[in-house]
Amino acid sequence: MPANVRVNWPDGGSMMLPTLWLRDVCPCPDCRIEQTQEKRFHLAALESVSVASLCADAEGLKVTWSEGHNSVYPRSFLEANHVRDQPKWRPWSDDYSPGYFDFTTFLSDRVYAIRAIEEFLEAGVLVLTNSPTEELTLERLAARLGPIREVLFDRIHNVKVDPKGYNVAHTSLPLPPHNDFASYSWPPSVQALHMLANEATGGRSTIYDGWAVLQAFRQEDPAAFDVLCRVAVPFREFDDGNETFACEPIIRLNPNGEMGIFRYSNQLMQVMDPLNPDTAAFYDAYYKLSRRLITSPFNRRFRLHGGEILVVASHRILHGREAIEDAGFRHLQDAYFEHDNVRNMLTVLERTHD
Ligand SMILES: [Fe+2]
Ligand SMILES: [Zn+2]
């Protein structure tokens, strides 16, 4: 069976189309479920696939398949761009500062919410202001960010200085840049940090444009970048009742070779096998990247006040905290969401009309 079908249009243009693709995408009502636009025809139902005859005219392409089925493809369909654009992220510019949006308006005003979500998808960061300083306020964000992504330990996580805490965040120590739950194979892709009270001195929030740092690192040292895409690193987070563990590379690219997941957590990273020949190469690359990260200009520091919610695209943006200097009351709640659901919300909001 020929792998491609050549189509010669009467006006002189031509195109090569994969034969199996062409049969698979037949738009006729027998091959599609009209109600849902889903595919009904399943290629595997045919023992072989080949063209018996075809005819291209001004309107489109007619194909009779050897199995007997007739397909009609409008020319506009064959020439359409079938690549769906994802919203574009942009690395922070020199004068970037996080966008602040009012919590109540974000929840109530469609056009305002669209603006905020667009800003979030581009910059990876959003700060919501004037939110209630009540526990579980983060639940209300589900109306805009989609359902809470639950992980072990808690649905809504409390961060206070706590001598029994399971994580360095529960101490007054500084927190180097990280994203949460590197110990999950699919870590949460959106994190919301809600400051309920911040009367402590110190403890400024830090955020880093991780993908921008990685992009520069990739340019400067592509071999080291590749090592970080390849070598799996163990991460663990646990307490008496929970045990989470994942062994994954620091950098996961998407199928187009673009940034996918930046997994970075000094605190959760486990001891690697020193006898594995990859370990030395990994550490060389990891050290270079980490030095670059902590001195990076893609870094912003600010005080998160009571009533403010920092939302980050956490496969891209790392967060941290400077040391807390005194014991003034400080209470933060964290919840996680998923980036897919935020993108869904943008589409739905754009479709809706006031
Ligand atoms: Fe964190
Ligand atoms: Zn068909």
From the structure above, extract its key features.
21 strands; binds fe (ii) ion; Double-stranded beta-helix; NE0471 N-terminal domain-like; alpha+beta; 6-stranded mixed β-sheet; 24% helix
List the helices and strands and how they pair.
Layout: E1 4-8, E2 14-18, H1 19-24, E3 32-33, E4 38-39, E5 51-56, E6 60-65, E7 70-74, H2 75-79, E8 100-102, H3 103-108, H4 110-123, E9 125-129, H5 142-145, E10 157-159, E11 175-178, E12 190-198, E13 205-209, H6 210-220, H7 222-230, E14 233-239, E15 242-248, E16 251-253, E17 259-262, H8 277-294, E18 299-302, E19 309-313, E20 317-321, E21 330-337, H9 339-351
Parallel strand pairs: 8-9
Antiparallel strand pairs: 1-2, 3-4, 5-6, 6-7, 9-19, 10-21, 11-20, 12-19, 12-21, 13-18, 13-20, 14-15, 16-17
Bound molecules: fe (ii) ion and zinc ion.
Fe (ii) ion (FE2) is lined by residues 169, 178, 180, 319.
Write a concise synopsis of the structure shown.
The protein is an alpha+beta fold. The protein has two domains: 4-79, NE0471 N-terminal domain-like (2-Layer Sandwich), CATH 3.30.2020.30; 100-351, Clavaminate synthase-like (Double-stranded beta-helix, 4-Layer Sandwich).
Q: In angstroms, what separates the terminal alpha carbons? A: 53 Å
The CATH class designation of the largest domain is Alpha Beta
Q: Which strand-content bin applies to the residues?
A: 25-35%
Helix content: 10-25%
Low-confidence stretches: none
CATH overall fold name of the largest domain: Double-stranded beta-helix
- Name the helix and strand elements from N-terminus to C-terminus, one letter apiece: EEHEEEEEHEHHEHEEEEHHEEEEHEEEEH
CATH superfamily of the largest domain: Clavaminate synthase-like
State the secondary-structure class.
alpha+beta
Could you give a short account of the major beta sheet? 6 strands, mixed
What is the annotated CATH architecture of the largest domain?
4-Layer Sandwich
Mean pLDDT: 95
Question: What characteristic shape results from the CA principal axes?
Answer: globular
Q: Strands of the biggest beta sheet: in what spatial order?
A: 8-9-19-12-21-10
Q: With helices defined by DSSP (H or I, 4 residues minimum), what is the helix count?
A: 9
